[in-house]
Specification:
Protein name: Integral membrane protein
Membrane topology: Multi-pass membrane protein
Structural class: mainly alpha
Subcellular location: Cell membrane
Oligomer: single chain
InterPro entries: DUF3817_TM (IPR023845)
Distance between the termini: 17 Å
Keywords: Cell membrane, Membrane, Transmembrane, Transmembrane helix
Length: 103
């Protein structure tokens, strides 16, 4: 059994990575581009965040199917990905209380 074999672990790790990448993009890379004239910051961090965002959405959809979430829980998890710090809130209030693997 590997570290990422648990759906809960994958959801939490990717969610936290997506949240960190989003905050770095918003508060570091974009100001560096707009105010500092360094577009490379967004050119590097943008695709990384984009990949993590796609992985997060796919894992949330998998969790909805396997855990049998309601549409409301699915919507909460997806909305969390577009709010700065939202995935941290979702992890703290919801994801960490999930069983390791769905029944």
């Amino acid at each position: 059994m590997t570290f990422f074999s648990s759906l809960k672990t994958r959801l939490r790790v990717i969610g936290l990575a997506e949240g960190v990448s989003y905050l770095l993009l918003l508060f570091i890379a974009v100001p560096l581009k707009r105010l500092g004239g360094y577009p490379e910051a967004v050119e590097v961090l943008g695709p990384i965040h984009g990949l993590l965002f796609i992985l997060y959405v796919l894992i949330v959809i998998q969790a909805k199917i396997e855990y049998g979430w309601s549409l409301g829980k699915l919507a909460m998890a997806l909305v969390a990905s577009i709010l700065p710090g939202g995935t941290f809130y979702a992890d703290h209030t919801f994801f960490r209380h999930l069983p390791a693997n769905p029944d």
